[in-house]
């Protein structure tokens, strides 16, 4: 079984990540952009978000973990704030099983045929009245499961 922890939209607020990551026992860590460089180490993958213009990180990554194809993007190029149709279409072109994305700061899980779209939400700047969040994805052979984790104290994003 492989345990993957997914974060997004930390925007330089490192306290929660620094405190949390050593306790997870993760096989992989993934950051879906907007201060992607906040997460570093071995088996760490991160993509550039719309707030990462200086980053040398790629805008997308394709991974295969336990025969599951995973696409990592921030989501702004697929206009995820306007809906997930463009992202789902892009993912189907890439023939992936899972898309991990961010940008909206809101946790999302959508299953569409053989495609799973997952957004961990924001670890640092969730929308008002929502807690900060991250995602745990487990892959065990052909079986995939996911769980959102919520943090009690949050700094809210003034929208």
Structure, explained:
The protein is mainly beta and 159 residues long. It has a domain at 9-24 and 72-133: Purple Acid Phosphatase, chain A, domain 2. Helix content is 10%, strand content 35%. The protein contains two helices and ten strands, in the order βαββββαβββββ. It has helices spanning 15-20, 85-94, and strands at 2-7, 28-31, 44-46, 60-65, 68-73, 98-100, 107-112, 115-120, 133-140, 143-150. The strands form two sheets. It has a five-stranded mixed β-sheet, with no helix packed on it. Strands 4-5-6-8-7 form a five-stranded mixed β-sheet, covered by helices on one side. It is globular. 39% of the residues are buried.
In short:
The chain is mostly beta strands. The protein contains 2 helices and 10 strands, in the order E-H-E-E-E-E-H-E-E-E-E-E.
CATH topology of the domain at 9-24 and 72-133: Purple Acid Phosphatase, chain A, domain 2
Q: CATH first level of the domain at 9-24 and 72-133: which class?
A: Alpha Beta
Largest sheet: 5 strands, mixed
**Overall helicity:** 10-25%
Helix-strand makeup class: mainly beta
Structure annotation, total helices: 2
Overall pLDDT, averaged? 90
Count the E strands.
10
Radius of gyration: 14 Å
CATH architecture of the domain at 9-24 and 72-133: 4-Layer Sandwich
One letter per element, helices H and strands E, the order comes to EHEEEEHEEEEE
CATH homology-level superfamily of the domain at 9-24 and 72-133: Metallo-dependent phosphatases
Kindly report how far apart the N and C termini lie: 39 Å
- Uncertain residue segments: 154-159
